[in-house]
Amino acid sequence: MDPIRNPYAPGAGQRPPELAGRDDQLDAFDVVLERVARGRPERSVVLTGLRGVGKTVLLNALRSAAVRARWGTGKLEARPEQTLRRPLAAALHVAVRELGHPAGDQVDHVLGVIKGFAQREAGAGVKLRDKWNPGIDAAVVVGRADSGDIEIDLVELLTDVGGLAADVGRGVGVFIDEMQDLGPDDVSALCAACHEISQSGLPVIVVGAGLPHLPAVLSASKSYSERLFRYQRIDRLGRSEADRALVAPASDEDASFTPEALEAMYAATAGYPYFIQAYGKVAWDVAPRSPITADDVAVAAPEAEAELGVGFFGSRYERATPAEREYLRAMADAALAAVDAGEDVDEIESVPTSEVARILGKKPQSLSPARDALLKKGLIYSGERGRIAFTVPHFGRYLRSQS
């Protein structure tokens, strides 16, 4: 089959040709956009899920919906080593420009507030040449969103941006990927600002995406966060949705899959969107003709698994230190031992931390540095006290295959 016409697109955050299984989230967000623009109360949105389920793709799709509604939008990716001020200022700069407010002096004022908010990261008394320039031509507004207290400053900043949006009858959306990587102070400030903005009825919402433990991160920061956000768990696709993700793009290229091929694809991918794209791309390339058959899928499987082993699994494994890799392997062994013992093991292979320590022959306390480092790197997470799980589906299987 012609590789140039191959419709499948495995890639980090890359939108697949058919965004299957996310219609409910897209429809619900359209309602949120319209309600907020009309001054109706609505909660901000948080998407959670494992790696490879398409959170970033959906986040981008929601932002596109906001752009079509003529909202001002800005996106940032949280990083553990970076504070919120600079990336948020850059995101809001884009959002204000997208709003197209007709009053230039009011726009310049808000841009000046954004600039002051960003430059306050350098601290008081820093010389002008040493301050970061966010690329905003407007003069810095002094005395607004520049106190140095991130919670106070963020409330003032979003209030001013929200007022600008209200003037033109639209809204502003701030889209935050990898939201679990925000620092504790920034998380607390963001929750407080969302709470204040919601109470004020201003048309500003935050749409965050992160790993399954993100709700716990938010709850630990502010006890009212469970009422502040609308949480949506993004999961793997069911069989019919997974079939649609394969069949619709193929149909657009005058190709098809046999029923047996679709069954084999679902068995191989377990419905994870990233895996569907990875296997679909290779199956298309190896198939001599349409329809793609189960035999084609069988031929494609080793190559697809090899590519996932390098790009999806291997790149994450390489980020771990030797001690952290030992911990990861012990988690995989603990999950396999549970299966062999006839215990139910979930898809993320969550295991007790005490069992990991037993396999390694060490006290649980001595393993805390490795576990904490893996948590910070986003390779594992703790969904409940005393248990740990991979953030990457099928990671345990990959690790066991490397032994």
From TrEMBL:
<feature type="region of interest" description="Disordered">
    <location>
        <begin position="1"/>
        <end position="21"/>
    </location>
</feature>
<dbReference type="GO" id="GO:0046872">
    <property type="term" value="F:metal ion binding"/>
</dbReference>
<keyword id="KW-0408">Iron</keyword>
<dbReference type="InterPro" id="IPR009056">
    <property type="entry name" value="Cyt_c-like_dom"/>
</dbReference>
<dbReference type="GO" id="GO:0020037">
    <property type="term" value="F:heme binding"/>
</dbReference>
<dbReference type="Pfam" id="PF13191">
    <property type="entry name" value="AAA_16"/>
</dbReference>
<keyword id="KW-0067">ATP-binding</keyword>
<dbReference type="GO" id="GO:0009055">
    <property type="term" value="F:electron transfer activity"/>
</dbReference>
<protein>
    <submittedName>
        <fullName>ATP-binding protein</fullName>
    </submittedName>
</protein>
<feature type="domain" description="Cytochrome c">
    <location>
        <begin position="166"/>
        <end position="317"/>
    </location>
</feature>
<keyword id="KW-0547">Nucleotide-binding</keyword>
<keyword id="KW-0349">Heme</keyword>
<dbReference type="InterPro" id="IPR027417">
    <property type="entry name" value="P-loop_NTPase"/>
</dbReference>
<keyword id="KW-0479">Metal-binding</keyword>
<dbReference type="GO" id="GO:0005524">
    <property type="term" value="F:ATP binding"/>
</dbReference>
<dbReference type="InterPro" id="IPR041664">
    <property type="entry name" value="AAA_16"/>
</dbReference>
